[in-house]
Write a structure and sequence with these properties.
This protein has 147 residues and is α+β, with helices and mostly antiparallel strands. The chain contains three helices and seven strands; from the N terminus they run ββββαβββαα. The protein has a single domain, classed as Nucleoside Triphosphate Pyrophosphohydrolase. Helices cover 22% and strands 41% of the residues. The radius of gyration is 15 Å and the shape is globular.
């Protein structure tokens, strides 16, 4: 019998906190893989017994110090990455949650190298320095918050 392949044995549930303040969206530059060094939404793994809505608020606060409320499900994305040999390196089921900003400017903590509020024009210029789907998720968050 051949050994089990390296990598995760099942998808990992994780959350992304999509927070708008007016027309700006909060992003963090990730300190750890996956997407280390790229701009993305605050987030991380869910804890056992924690709802996706609570996890989004917790991760947002841990990474940025921002307080938010009224979390709502936006969408779920698969993040699947393979190593150089083609083996599965990461598989996250990323649950995107829209959170209503209450307070805080955003200070890098936990898994964030830095935080920043991005306007629509600035966000469009981030390009390859952003994680996949950042622009799409920001658009969905704006549409949902306007509804």
């Amino acid at each position: 019998m051949s050994p089990a392949p390296a990598g995760p044995s099942r998808p990992v549930p994780a959350v992304l906190a999509l927070v708008l303040r007016g027309e700006e969206v909060m992003l963090v530059r990730r300190a750890n893989p996956p997407d280390q060094g790229l701009w993305g939404f605050p987030g991380g793994r869910m804890e056992v017994g924690e709802s996706h809505l609570d996890a989004a608020l917790r991760e947002l606060h841990e990474e940025t110090g921002i307080h938010a409320d009224a979390p709502r499900l936006v969408t779920v994305l698969d993040f699947i990455e393979h190593d150089a040999e083609g083996r599965l390196a990461h598989h996250f089921a990323m649950i995107a949650v829209l959170c209503r900003w209450q307070s805080g400017e955003g200070e890098a903590a936990d898994d964030a190298l830095e935080t920043r509020w991005f306007g629509a024009a600035e966000l469009a210029e981030v390009g390859p320095a952003a994680s996949a789907q950042v622009l799409t998720l920001a658009r969905l968050a704006r549409e949902m918050s306007a509804a």
